[in-house]
Amino acid sequence: MLIVQKYGGTSVGTLERIQNVANRVAKARDEGKDLVVVVSAMSGETNKLIEYAHFFSKNPIKREMDILLSSGERVTAALLSIALNEMGYKAIALTGRQAGIKTDTAHTIARIESIDTSKIQEKIQDGNIVIVAGFQGINDKGEVTTLGRGGSDLSAVALAGALKADACEIYSDVDGVYTTDPRIEPKARKLDFISYDEMLELSSLGAKVLQNRSVELAKKMGVTIVAKSSFTDAPGTIISEAKEDKMEEVLVSGVALDKNQARITLRGVEDRPGIAAEIFKKLADENINIDMIIQNASEDKDGVKKTNLGFTVAQNQLEDAKNVIQNFNQEIGSVDFDENVAKVSIVGVGMKSHSGVAATAFEALAKNNINIEMISTSEIKISMIIDEKYGELAVRVLHDAYGLDKK
Ligand code: ADP
Ligand code: ASP
Ligand code: MG
Hints:
By secondary structure, the protein is α/β, with parallel strands linked by helices. The protein has helices at residues 15-30, 45-56, 62-86, 118-125, 152-162, 196-204, 212-221, 275-285, 318-325, 357-367, 391-401, and strands spanning 2-7, 34-39, 91-94, 101-103, 112-115, 129-133, 136-138, 144-146, 167-172, 193-195, 225-229, 237-240, 254-270, 293-295, 299-301, 304-314, 334-347, 374-378, 381-387.
């Protein structure tokens, strides 16, 4: 039986905790399992390295960032291997490259393209516990790449898929996926099961318990994820294909908050066919993900039609977005940026077949004097941009409005 386990930053946050992980891995080994263990950097380490880079540059070169950031995971991989060997277990640490993880060229947000598992398999055959530095790979030019924040989850899922592992266990400091972040709402309830689609929405909308791209890949490759705690033996949450019979029962399964949002408003934009296409194409070329878009009805100004165009990007892509927009000086009157916004979202497959779900959310926020600045909806989610300072309050209000604390 081959198991892929992934331990996140908090789980390896101190040397004692790395020892704790070593003990857990050793126990699984004693049960006769073959193991590939993916590790994150020690908690806070990646942020610290980013801060270091920002000491020198507001927008550091992304290739160099990948060299820098990939080092955090290597430290933990090596330390865990050293600890296991000291305990008498045969273990070997591999970097992303050594583990055969091949990515595209998008530095700092690379996608995994393929995995050559031969080296891992050979090491397992030799009786090793294979420890892989998460969050990283190599592109076809031989350059180190990283997989976006939280990317060790993606490493784990991709390896589980490529190795056809019997299980993919993702360990963090919570014992599963809750109806919302239990740090924000202590009444949040742990879910025994959540479908890929709902989890994908939740994680894309800010629930960082699993990285969204890892869920996307898990769905694509049919990898069942179990989210668990590295500090307890509590049963976790299973993330897998939706159980059709359960679909209609739950209206809303969770609430997510994303504070990593920035709003860009372009005022006095020439309203002619193709202008939005040009702007968003340029942003896309720079790998900037646009989230919500609002275009107002245009107004006639001195015989020229002008409109306002608002959209949101992740805060860490704001600098890149600003650079792109500078190229449109001619076509845009003025630009303003607001980093103090947050996105609060409700997710549930049951929304598909029910009306009035949105009205409940709007009413609940209104009752608490929280103004909604932008709204976007899909079949299974409703997202709202609000003032960042009301983010946590909005989560609790919505959690309550849908009675998520009760089964
Ligand atoms: P790791 O460092 O192990 O990758 P993360 O910090 O990325 O772990 O993810 C775990 C954290 O996710 C929890 O501490 C919790 O605060 C947060 N979180 C946000 N939303 C949820 C949710 N719906 N369920 C569980 N945890 C959540
Ligand atoms: N260390 C990386 C991060 O903090 C990747 C991860 O932890 O999954 O984003
Ligand atoms: Mg994480």
